[in-house]
Amino acid sequence: MALVKTPMTLQHAPSGVDDAEAERIRNDFPALAQEVHGHPLVYLDSGATSQKPRSVLEAEQEFYEQRNAAVHRGAHELAVRATDAYEDARATVARFVGADPDEIVWTSNATEAINLVAQSLATASVWAERGRGGADTRRLAIGPGDEIVVTELEHHANLIPWQELAFRTGATLRWIPVDDSGRLRMDEAERVIGPRTRVLAFAHASNVLGSVAPVEELVALARRVGALVVLDACQSAPHLPLDLAALDVDFAAFSGHKMLAPTGIGALYGRRELLDALPPFLVGGSMITTVTMERAEYMPAPQRFEAGTQRISQAVAFAAAVDYLSHTGMERIHAWESQLGARLAEGVASIPGVRLLGPAPGEEWHGSGRIGLAAFDVEGVHAHDVGQFLDSAGIAVRVGHHCAQPLHRRLGLTASTRASAYLYTTNGDVEAFLGALAEVRGYFGATR
Q: Family, per the entry (predicted)?
């Protein structure tokens, strides 16, 4: 069994996160103790990548010191330890998202996970043409006349793979539009999702607007026409209690690095019967049963999608990150971030000349509030200049189009600035950010 250390600050965690608890949590994150440009670091870029607690860093180090070996290959003791740690990690992450272990495929990140589904569906079409695969595989084939539906607010990682799938198969890509504020047009969704829809792919939470999608309504529309549902859970898995089975989605993708784990590790959730029906994404060693010089037979999922040497230490550290979040409590994290997100939205919206993107303070779209982030446009100042000014005060935020150019274009922007909170963010961090943001337009002479 893999060794997992309970964070010391969380062994007697109080019932709710507050500033005092957030400060204690911060002590588990070495990177947050540093200064930047002579100021204490205020890290408000967790939507891009999270910081890592000591327990995660130690889990990866402990693996290399005590268990380092190839998995599913050797019969020696270290190989057994490595394989146990690797598969224990899969089971831990599966429980965290409400899945069974054989429904979790390790990937490099969520981008790879979404590409896995899209490219495997393209391969299913080729297999169907050439009489390969069973009836379940043939049912996944996509071709001319079929439609793939996304939304206008998607991250590029949940848009471009579907563009390519449409191009390769002759299918048509359609999208659910947003209104002038960025809210999904659910009246249009009922029109766009129709009898020809084979795939519906959408983000659980927007990485730009912070809005949460109406998952139940969208899934119901897809189920009505028999379409597959692919959920981009990158901005929900780190911040919301997540039960993928209860959400009734077919596939979901999420990245470790956004939820306290190292870079280089992500996961794809898929219904067992669908994963077993999909052709493999990568081929090679470790994912086969029989190989001749003419052809190969592939293992069932998840191994059929895990060719070659895997991300073993990263998977072990991913499990440690999930344990840290679980010990803290996802309901507690969500409640704390909801408070921080509300203050971010309220504070940003109150600054003259600053346009908040997404739901207005206190407003709920589709019956849900916002996650703990706020993106905005500063009148007369480019987002990159805003980011540099904040950085000079030790405040780290994200600038640019956030890999969502179509959404920015729809909102009449080329770029925006985004502040995003996490469990280690304090009210002091938020107030320091808002104080600095209020000075931006005056500094650049944009108030005249």
A: Belongs to the class-V pyridoxal-phosphate-dependent aminotransferase family. Csd subfamily.
